[in-house]
Structures
1.
Amino acid sequence: MEANVTESSPILWPQTGGVRRVPYRIFTDPTVYAREQERLFGGRSWNYVALNAELPNPGDYKATFIGDTPVIVCRDREGELNAMVNRCAHRGALVCRDFLGNRAALQCVYHQWTYDLRGHLTGVPFRKGLDGKGGYRPNFDTAQHSLRKLNLTSYRGLAFASFTDQMEPIEEYLGDNIRPWIDRVFNRPVKVLGYARQFIHANWKLYVENVKDPYHASLLHLFHATFNIYRANQGGGCLVDPNGRTSIIRAWRRSDQNDRDVEEMAPRTHRKGYQLADPSILESRKEFEVELTNSINHIFPCVVVQQIQNTLATRHILPKGPDSFELLFTFFGYQDDDKEMDRLRLKHANLVGPAGYISMEDGYATELVQQAIQGGGCDSSFVELGGEVEREDENLNTEAAIRSFWSYYRSVMEI
Amino acid sequence: MSIDTREARWVVEDLLAGYADCIDSDRLEDWPDFFIENCLYKIVPWENVSRNLAIGWVLCDSRGMLQDRVVAHRTANLYAPHRYRHIVGTVRILSCADQFIEARANYLIVRTALDAVHYGTSEIYSAGEYRDRIVVENGSAKFVEKIVVADTARVDTLLVTPI
């Protein structure tokens, strides 16, 4: 009997080392990617699809993706959000063709099948044919031909969808210890400030590792060190939910450590001599009860909620095959922001996004890995910073959150 | 001193040619000198401009911020080595009054990779439009405002070299 690749594990995880060794094939193998579509994106995940604020009015829709599958998020006449597969129930064409829009009804252009804003089929041209010829049989039932509906839930202005109906409540999914940090950012109504997109030539999971990796912050991103702004003695740490699905890396200012110690520990990061000609980019305004300079919050599988100074954004990781992904930033502020805060958020956007002083390297670093692991055979990476811990680790020199991700990933993927 | 449209076209074409050459020949340290001290330089994707969304990729509201971008480019930021060729299209003069000129021009940037994996590969990196406000003082033209509206919303990997 021919083995079904989706049943037997497509790759062998190293026998020893557990999640402290990650086989490089996990980032390159098309059979792994195919299994992710089914088990991970198509399985028991709450997939981020939108900010509710992107779709304020009835008829507003957004075309997005869950894994490879095109998805529509749409606000109906009653004001509720709905999520459907963006694929006509007739012969499979895309129904919503632009990224954002507003329609009274959703219509496929191919044969003009029309759906209401909840995805129910309402109109079929030539249903009874013409002059008694052609058309569908009399028992044709429009109720049997809706767009494929997804399970949708909202949490404080974030919309998540799932292919599975039997999902735990989103509150539970986010984790009791992580949820308060999401509440911290989504504490009142938000407004969308704009989008930024990057196309990265690397596997999406390399980016997930990156956002769970506080170790690289002061070593890869040299902006702060170059201008003598940031030091590795910044306080911080990572939190992981008990299931390993969500995590947060937090950093805050701390001044109880000698700069010289840090210089000896990480000499490359400490470069004297440069000062910002215009330091206005560093002016930030206190706006949270708990002050953090950076808060990078990953929600499995594919979204990051970030706060860096006064920039707020979701980063939606959109896989595009085993060796590339799109990174879609949705920048936001609060509806009650004053003009000065609007100005600060725009200015701090210099720090993140495709040209971000402290983020442009992230995508590049993942590409350097993707390029180097080609032909990697059975090699694996070394993820032992901080030992074997997979849970909380209240320091920045740890890979605990990365290990916790891989533990959860392996359980979902049965790899 | 006021300038007429024909003269303005020469001034703008000359400025844009010098600007593009400065970047393409990697003389980034000279790049801020194309702007006045209290300038505005923004790179924003057209998708935001068309939706009246304010956020962009780069927002510098002083020449000092441009200088900081150059220092970061040289010293702090990490990226695959590359070079640009700017192809700047025909200049359109929207207005010229006193010493101020408002002009637009399309641009296209072909980026050539210089890293080991992609060495020598050229591709269209960005297409868009310059929306410029220029001041001519003492015979020299500088940008008061340069808004780069990029049609290419999906940035290939990253943006470090100015457009």
2.
Amino acid sequence: MTAVIEFEAVGKRYVGVDSLRDLSFRIGEGEVLGLLGHNGAGKTTTMKLILGLIAPSAGRISVFGASPTGAEARALRQTLGYLPENVSFYEQLSGREVLTYFARLKRVPLRQIDGLLEKVGLTHAAGRRVKTYSKGMRQRLGLAQALLGAPRLLLLDEPTTGLDPAATRDFYAMVRELKDNGSTVILSSHVLPGIEPYIDRALILGRGRRLALGSIDELRTEAGLPLRVSARGDWRDTPTRWPAGVRPLAIGAERLELEVAPHAKMAALRQLAADSRTQDLELQAPTLENLYTHFSTRSEAAA
Amino acid sequence: MNAILTVAGKEFRDGLRNRWVLAIALVLGLLAVGIAYFGAAASGAVGFTSLSTTIVSLASLAVFLIPLIALMLAYDAVIGEQEQGTLLLLLTYPLSRTSLLLGKFLGHGLILATATVTGFGVAGLVIGIGAEDIVLGELVRSLGLFILSAVLLGWVFVALAYLVSVLVSEKSRAAGLALVLWFLFVLVFDLVLLALLVGAGERIGREGLTYLLLLNPTECFRLLNLTGFPAAQTAAGVTSVAADGALRPAALLTSLLAWIAVPLALAVWRFRNRHA
């Protein structure tokens, strides 16, 4: 797979503060990367570096094989789409006028605008001034702006802030569609449950460092966090011997809750399945949120 | 070039839409007609008086108003977009910072020019029709020069406003700094020059003081509109130290152009070299 973005030992120093340290990663074509981290972890800095808005203080960055601050930057920008955090567009212009302005600047045919407005569901409000738009409508206008010229790389900074659950779902459906069309997408968010199903890999940042990088499965393996298994049934009367790595959390009249280390998972499931008291089994693997908490608290403990 | 025109077009349309153009034209036009009509009220007469008095009164008024209008129009050109988040976005577009700033200058410049030409032009028409003993050629010539210099003066302060806008990190500071600039150029400079004239007039000499006037674009504007009018002497204030015609109109116009080019170049340079 060809690398769309490549970071090699990248560092960024603002007056005395390291906002990014020794960051290396590669993103391939058609990949959706979730950029996760607390505020100030370096998410926005990473995006600005990719966009060529700032130059790295150390290391090397290449985007589509070129340096984002180099001579090819102008051509590169034609293939990028960016939705900044907290952008409030020109209030006195209508949605269509905003898109027309940006389309002209990006030298994109103006006939794309109607299609984009429809895609983000703003056709009915296209002639109204942005001043009258709700937060969700503004965000959708921002997305339409980022999609001008069918960019091959999209950077979305906190794209779902202020969106209601339905709008968030629509939004991610659009991200999936873009991915299916071969676009590479980087999105940052701190609403983790929302993005879990839509990202291929997650890059977890903390204080400017890479804490973890991988698909959810890879992160689970790396973290080694226990799973939750709950079995329906009455487990009170007889004490049970559990295999190593299994720890009962709660034994009740209706439900048994176990914490199971990854290596003991199959042993525990076999035993439960064979037990006549088990009426139903539920298995819960660590969520992205659990993983995120794991990696970020581990780094804080180390610091 | 295309990007510059796109930005300029948007700025100009914004100016039309939020009624800047209309408001400026109305204010300037009404004031001009008012001054032309009531200019001689002090001497007991009402009605259109001599052209020179009118132009001189207009110039002394424009010297206060035009810089203020230009600064208000343009002080948030960059910092305003930065605060609403659109600057960051624009910088990720295939558009250089120079084009962005030049485009804005073109747009704002066009707003000011349209409003000034319309406002004072209509006033000129009213004077031309209403006044009795006015030579039409002379009216066109001096009003033309007046409008041209007023537009240039406006552009000077648009350029200065951009310099302010790229230097500060908050919109409110930009507004404050713009007011300070206005104060310095329009009010303080005269006082300092007056003090110099009284305190060290001998040593600097008349010649030296004349060239000092070039250091202030508003004085250049005033001088441009006073040369050639004998009646102007009384209304010229400090500027009259140079009223002997030591400075030709061409030199004054050049100075105004330099006052546009230098702050604009500095603003572009600063904008290109700062963080996003």
